[in-house]
Write a structure and sequence with these properties.
single chain; alpha+beta
Length: 168
């Protein structure tokens, strides 16, 4: 089965027309209850469209298989990224391990001289941790497996759409 892309172009045109109608409607200072009901209906359409989008994006992600990026004819790209939700970090143990690695890295191997002060090491620690989360990629650069310091949640995959010039 093929689906004509013009269906989506028509939807976008219809949405812009609805936007213009709603702008015109709101300028008439309508009854708040009536306007509220329209907002509820619009919210339900938004929710429903989100469901359709999420469902289709997941299916496209499955169709992509191991491909991480697909370039479209319009110049846009569809990227597939995966990540694991990490929870219940053992901040104390992980901070200690990062501090140990930074301490090791602060010694010049040729001279044995310490190249960072304690303050500089603490400041450097912030390259690997943030207030509410640890920077997983930076921990990997130190050879530290972040999964040893947290409880992992469900694996999730995100589909990212980046518009090309022809889509704007």
């Amino acid at each position: 089965m093929t689906l004509d892309i013009s269906v989506f172009e028509k939807w976008r045109k219809d949405i812009m027309e609805i936007d213009a109608l709603l702008d015109e409607y709101i300028r008439t200072t309508p009854d708040i209850v009536e306007a509220g009901e329209m907002l509820v209906q619009l919210n339900m359409v938004k929710r429903d469209m989100g469901i359709v989008y999420d469902s289709f994006a997941g299916k496209v992600g499955m169709l992509m298989g191991n491909r991480g990026l697909v370039e479209t004819q319009s110049g846009a790209s569809v990227e597939k990224k995966s990540a694991t939700d990490r929870k219940k970090w053992d901040h104390g143990k992980l901070a200690t391990r990062v501090a140990e690695r930074l301490n090791e890295m602060s010694v010049d191997m040729d001279t044995g001289e310490r190249t960072m002060t304690a303050t500089q090491m603490v400041e450097k620690l912030l390259d690997y941790a943030a207030v509410s989360y640890w920077r997983v990629g930076k921990l990997g650069e130190l050879g530290i497996n972040p999964d040893l310091y947290c409880e992992q949640g469900e694996h999730k995959t995100n589909i990212i759409v980046r518009l090309g010039d022809k889509n704007k």
